[in-house]
């Protein structure tokens, strides 16, 4: 049986891994919102050519679509990442317990 100390250690590991995945997903979501904001500002410009560089600007609709895609991707990364952290920690704890049980019982059989 898993000790309380190991269970709390696993919970702390899960918390750290989950926070890392949530931060990663949050960065993608933030970039998505900035992209949508930039597309709304770009839509207000009267010309499609950058007056300073003379280059064509990106379509505001395209930038907005990329922003929405990044927001969705960020939500998926945060959700799946936290779930994967949960499975990772639980599987490690189960493997440790199985290893303890098999080594303990085989030592008595020799």
Mean pLDDT: 84
Compressed to H and E, one letter per element, the order equals: HH
Q: Between the first and last Cα atoms, what is the distance in angstroms?
A: 24 Å
Cα Rg: 24 Å
Structural class: mainly alpha
Number of domains: 1
Total count of helical runs of at least 4 residues:
2
Shape: rod-shaped
Outline the fold blueprint.
Elements: H1 4-42, H2 60-109
Helix pairs in contact: 1-2
Descriptive overview:
The protein is an all-alpha fold and 110 residues long. The protein has one domain (4-104). 81% of the residues lie in helices and 0% in strands. The protein has helices spanning 4-42, 60-109. The longest helix has 50 residues, at 60-109. The radius of gyration is 24 Å and the shape is rod-shaped.
Task: Supply database-style keywords.
about 110 residues, single chain, mainly alpha
Quick description:
With 110 residues, the protein is mainly α. Helices cover 81% and strands 0% of the residues.
């Amino acid at each position: 049986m898993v000790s309380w100390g190991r269970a709390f250690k696993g919970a702390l590991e899960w918390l750290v891994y989950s926070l890392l995945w949530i931060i990663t997903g949050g960065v993608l979501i933030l970039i998505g919102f900035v992209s949508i904001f930039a597309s709304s500002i770009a839509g207000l410009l009267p010309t499609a050519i950058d007056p300073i560089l003379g280059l064509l600007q990106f379509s505001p609709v395209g930038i907005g679509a990329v922003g929405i895609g990044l927001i969705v991707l960020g939500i998926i990364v945060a959700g799946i990442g936290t779930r994967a952290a949960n499975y990772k920690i639980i599987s490690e704890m189960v493997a440790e317990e199985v290893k303890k049980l098999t080594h303990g019982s085989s030592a008595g059989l020799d």
